[in-house]
Amino acid sequence: TLAAFDPFDSAGATAMDDPARKALQMAHRYGAFLAAAYLAALGARALCAGGPLWNAGATVLALVLVQTGMGALALPLGFPLALMVAHNAGAALLLLAVTHLAQRARPAAQGP
Questions:
Q1: What's the CA gap between 32 and 88, in Å, rounded?
Q2: Which of 51, 55, 71, 111 is the most buried (most CB within 10 A)?
Q3: pLDDT of 9 strictly over 50
Q4: Prediction pTM value
Q5: How many whole angstroms separate alpha carbon 85 and alpha carbon 2?
């Protein structure tokens, strides 16, 4: 049946009984998918550029993978607090990594 493909049909996931929470979670997933795709492309482009951007691009790609994994594990594990805190911390680290990549990609300022 199609119920086997329902991402919210999980034993012990009582936090998702409310339709409003389901809608919010789906909006988060769609937004996260778009952000992950964009950031993965950005990280891959930095890897291809090489040089000083390689490390920053690799960091962004690694953090995107970790964030995606933690987000995917949240529902089946019943939204454990430790995982959710780690997911938030990972988002902060990803923001720092993308900011660092942007700073490294910026051309050096020319002196007077």
A1: 13
A2: 71
A3: yes
A4: 0.78
A5: 32
54 has a pLDDT exceeding 90 = yes
**Half-sphere exposure (CA, 13 Å, Cβ side) for 78?**
4
Burial class (CB in 10 A: 0-12, 13-18, 19+), 94: buried
Q: What is the residue-wise DSSP string for the chain?
A: -GGGG-TT--TT-GGG-SHHHHHHHHHHHHHHHHHHHHHHHHHHHHHHH-TTHHHHHHHHHHHHHHHHHHHHHHTTTT--HHHHHHHHHHHHHHHHHHHHHHHHHSPPPPP-
Please name the residues in contact with 78: beta carbons below 8 A apart, sequence gap of 6 or more: 10, 12, 13, 15
CA–CA distance from 30 to each of 26, 48, 52, 72, 112 (Å)? 6, 27, 32, 12, 47
